[in-house]
Amino acid sequence: MTTTQVALLCNLAMSGAHLNPHLQWLELETPFPSVTQAWKSDTGAPGLLAAGGDLSLTRLVSAYSQGIFPWFSQGQPILWWSPAPRMVLQTHQFKLHRSLLKTLRHYRSTPSFELSFDRDFDQVIENCAEAPRKKQAGTWIVPAMVKAYKELHRAGFAHSVEVWLEGELVAGLYFVCLGKAVFGESMFTRVKDGSKIALSSLVHVCLRHDVDVIDCQQNTQHLASLGANEMPRCDFLTRIKRNMLSTSPDWSIQTIDWAALKTIEQ
Q1: pLDDT tens digits for range 193-205
Q2: Which of 5, 82, 109, 162 has the fewest CB atoms inside 10 Å of its own CB, making it the most exposed?
Q3: Is the dihedral angle over the CA atoms 219, 88, 253, 122 positive or is it negative?
Q4: Which residues contact residue 44 at a Cβ distance below 8 angstroms, ignoring those fewer than 6 apart?
């Protein structure tokens, strides 16, 4: 462990109003601790589970299968999280607001408008990494994360939704999928409601394939406005373990049935 890593972990361990619990350091072969050991709400970093390890394909698949995800900034060691409760979007509760449906209809009338899956994952994640974040000076999608998730995509576990206008990628999102367990990661847009259009497309396909929940990781007002809500971690883990047993959709061939979008209008 480097001096920088030691200093960071010491700061984390002493942050907040209470003395935080031990934070396990992962060597390359160290398995994840139980998610029940994640830091609680009265600590300096609720949901923090472990630090270290790597972003290998095996490690990432193991993490997601246990409801764990990496989230860290440049200059930090890899930090692993499992928040409780967990923010999720139950697909049948997605709110396709009338204003968004109006925007969709507008774009649909534009001949150059296209929606696709897995056409250009690399460009989507690179745009997500460069997208400005409110109240954030940088991004957690650091170069090591970009490289790791590109490898995850090539292995068939990470996917993208793309929104195109005039042949240019103007919005999109990427996600991880194990069986029918879907984990949302990040979105970007350069046009009005672009990321919402990408999300509505993902929800639409999930509903068509009986995918009942999309992991959203963190509670935000934006996600709540679209129908996401908090779920106890134990319930979330039960859902993903069950959904992982099902066959994943072939995302690259998915299309959007525009008429069916009305069925999820709120």
Answers
A1: 999 999 999 999 9
A2: 109
A3: positive
A4: 12, 14, 15, 16, 20
